[in-house]
Amino acid sequence: MPDDRPENPYLELLARGAPAEAYERPVLRARADKASADRLAALEAAKLLALRVRGELEGRRRREAELSALFETAHDLAGLRDLDAVLQAIVQRARSLLGTEVAYLTLNDPMAGDTYMRVTDGSVSARFQQLRLGMGEGLGGLVAQTARPYVTESYFHDPRFQHTHTIDAGVRDEGLVAILGVPLLLGSGVIGVLFAADRRARVFEREQIALVGSFAAHAAVAIDTAHLLAETRTALAELEAANEIIRDRSRVIERASDVHDRLTELVLRGGGVHDVAGAVAEVLSGSVEFLEADEAPAAAVDRSRADGHAVRDGEEDWVAAVSAGGELLGALVLRGHPRLDPVDQRTLERAAMVTSLLQLARRSAGEAEQRVRGELLDDLLDAPDREPRLLRERAARLQADLDTPHVVLAAGIEAPGMGTPTTGPGNAHGTTHGTANGHGTTHGSGPGNTSSTSGGAPAEDAAGRQRLWSAASHLAATRHGLAVARDGGTVLLLPLAEGDTADALARRTARQLGTAAHAAVTVGASAPVPAPAARPGEVAAGYAEARRCLAALRVLGRAGQGAAAEDFGFLGLLLAGTREGAPDGTGVQDFVARTVGAVIDYDERRGTELVRTLDAYFAGGMSPARTKDALHVHVNTVAQRLERVGRLLGPDWQSPARSLEIQLALRLHRLTSAMGH
Description:
alpha+beta, elongated, seven-stranded mixed beta sheet, six-stranded antiparallel beta sheet
């Protein structure tokens, strides 16, 4: 029969890829059947031969996988677009093929004179990921000095390299034991080291060391290629800029004369700012755009105002500030000119001056509309019993829709020498009213509150409030909102676009008003008011909330910024209070859900212990080693759980600000859970 041949059972085992222990079974069965000595000897010989063939097949499969990975890496280099992505792929493939728990790559920093972590895979320790190694320190320093691979089966018991407290603490925090490092060679120099490591003792074979060396060579090529591509792009940009100057030089004087004639004609026939931009664009053969103060590039505008000239912004843009009487009205931006001839530069500056005159003329016509907007907002704040139909009609004439969600914003200027605005009766343009909450406030459609504040001259305070009110009124008009001077600052009621948030609107408004008023402006925002016309009483409540946020920003040292209650984390629960119809405790629940809800839900669905692991991780000073002791689990289990947490909460969950909120949310979760039971 065929099975009498000793090699037959082993051929069947080889065909189905059986594990090594299965090759003992035919011999054991033969012994159990009391086979002859010749039969047993033949089976033993066939077994050894089959195991050798199996080893050869396994080796070939492993080499095939290694060659495939190296081919994929070479393919990545051929189409190099993102250096970080290529290096990450190299580290991941090295870790996968060697079956190690961690792989990482370090690069030398010639400026700082040390080595830093560039890419890691499998690492869970924040301290380890942020390590910087001095030249010649640690296993990586030995590899860099000798330009040869080094491997240690037990890192902490290996005396061949220089141990330091910082490096040893990071390695211990990650739990690493066996480490292999190979140099990244560029020419005859070492630019970094590629590592593969395990959290247990392990012997790396010669073939594995050679494989990591191949990946290191690919990484060095990728870095060198990226540097060459960057240098090539820079050279091409410089050549293009020089060519542009040569083409434009011969026409510069003719363009200057042409634009002068065009601007004169525009002023005489009453043209607008966009007409000026169009004329300059045609003459300078580029794209010219007028931007409002809140849309213009702030840094470039500040330089233009300080120098009194048009300035470069980026590679191909030029910016000329449009201002009058110390107030920024906007900017003219010329695009598509890497170089600008001095004559063309003066042409752009003259166009900015003409634009400022046209803007002042337009402002005179808009002041009446601003007063009407201020009166409507005053009525919303002070008279909640107004007829909704009349409010809607008045808003419609101003192109405002008070049946959509709006946000109330309280803005205060923080100019040097000015103190905190105070409430007083001296508004020259308004009257003193009792607001809906019963507090007396000074307000009106203009900024003329002349009451003094501590730390600043009244004239300086009035000038600052004037600039703030002008900027806020202009912003309200362009955004179909309302604005009024009130309580030494300005109040705005702006529509909330779909997908936007009150916090984002507050930050954006602070930047826009600060740019326009040329001073730091602090803005506090309320929660959204669904329909101000239908429920005008909520506008006054929103204003009170916005003022609390404004005061909180100043107390917290965040003057010049914008925020809503949601931006203050747990403090926001105290600032916002409870909205009408919302149960007590909703703010705490929302904070917990927003911060760690994804981890809690994952535990509830899967029956895991991620929340418990996070508690132990923070209690142990964010050390995986101490965490596994507290939980009585293996460090690999901790690493796997923390990797899952990172995927649920995002890559920055261990940053100081995020980790603080996460710890607070975990404590609140425990507290509310205990109260619920």
